[in-house]
Amino acid sequence: MLLIKVKTPSYCTSKNSFGETIFDPNKEVITINISTKKNKNQAEFYVTLLHELLHVWVAVMKANRAKVKHEHKFIYRCEDAIIKELKRLSKETKSCTKKHKFKK
Fold this sequence. Notes:
3 strands
């Protein structure tokens, strides 16, 4: 079993990083650090979290012999596709809630 811990330090190991993923080969734990100083708002925080989770996904794919040549290019394309789909779902949800009037 693999455990993913998400921590929110003020800064990551590299002070310029918005986030980092730390793989510990001796433990079955992956630590994701999201900098609270670099990620100024909730949107930045969640995009950084998504980015770091995609690093974990790529690592799992590589462990299963998948070939990913340009890791960050792949991750950025995945981010774009996921965010685009979330925006579409958000619009769909808003239109559904407008159609149905909920009584308080």
